[in-house]
Every structure is written in structure tokens, then in C-alpha cells.
Amino acid sequence: MSFRPLHDRVLVRRVEEETKSSGGIIIPDTAKEKPMEGEIVAAGQGVRNEKGVLTPLDVKAGDRVLFGKWSGTEVKIDGEDMIIMKESDILGIITGAVSKKKAA
Known about the structure:
By secondary structure, the protein is mainly beta. The chain is built from one helix and eight strands; from the N terminus they run ββββββββα. The protein has one helix at about 100-104; strands at about 10-15, 35-45, 45-50, 55, 65, 75, 80-85, 90-95. The longest helix has 4 residues, at about 100-104. The protein is elongated, with a radius of gyration of 16 Å.
């Protein structure tokens, strides 16, 4: 299935957190919080202002972003849990991120 968000909405895939703590303790699923970090899968074209001029989004597919805990609407697309949210719900873009596995 192909999905394209409209206007200033984006489709985000949550980035899964580690199942072990830095001390080696395995964290059960019931104790985990939902991650507030994700990857943009698809983005809309942008929003039009009062004059009808299209303002493009600051994010694009492939960007890693940080978003609010209760942001967006959870949906299931092709059996995968994703989130549809407005660009304004995104707190920032993560650049130059080094994964925790490489740092350890």
C-alpha cells in the first residue's frame, strides 16, 4: 500500500529503544515507555498561506525527529504501527546521531 500525507502532515515510524539498560539489565515490555523519537517515512507537500502560496515543510522522508509524548494519531499501515502528525507537533530534527550501540 502507498500512503501520502496531505498538507502539513507527516508519517512517522517510531524508533525502538534498547531492551537492555546500560548496566545490562533487561527491561520488560510492560516497563518501557513509548519512544519519542522516530523516522519520517513520508511527508505532505506543505501548507498554503492566505495568498495561496505553498510553504514547503522543513522535514523530509528519512529525517530522524523528536516529537511530543502524546503527539499525533497512531495508525496501522501494512501491519506496521505508525503515527500521523502535523509538522508543528515535531520538536526538532536529530542530526549527526550516533547509535547507542556504536557509542558503547
